[in-house]
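Progress report, Aim 2. The chain analyzed during this reporting quarter is listed below.
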Amino acid sequence: RDWSSDVCSSDLLRADLALSGHGIGTLDSLTFCRQVTGFHSISSIKGALHQMLDEAGAAVREHNEQSSSPVVIKVLEIIRSGYAEHLCVNDIAEQVHYSPAHLSTLFKKETGLTLGEAILRTRIKAAMDLLRNTLESVSVIAGKVGYADVQYFSRVFKQFTGITPLEYRRKAVL
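Predicted structure tokens for the chain:
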């Protein structure tokens, strides 16, 4: 059975069209499908698919930022650059010269997320990347993404992903 043809299904092409229909650009589905036929393992396909999805995510973020106000773009930059630090609404609001309440309302309106949710997502996505690409312990990774308590980090990670950090690492390596 040719498993590479399953990966190049119409679902992948539909995702491509859906993104391009929103002005986000296209995933290079045909190139990806051509590459897949040269792969010899599921893990190599998974790696290529992860890279493709990361690129699509970056395109979506860029598109969303282009339609966001300058203050929301600045807040997203603050979160991306400072997620490993202690971040709270009051500190972020002070940096962009807005009241916490006004900033929270504006951010939620433009992104669909609360500031807390945006910080959490950024931290967990950074942790996922570290779990996938390093051999550092969960405790070290927790500290690097802004969590002093590894148990709390593991609980938040599981709430966000549905699996523990160690389970994620095992699945990401396969």
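The mean pLDDT is 80. The chain is about 75% helix and 0% strand. These observations will guide the mutagenesis work planned for the next reporting period.
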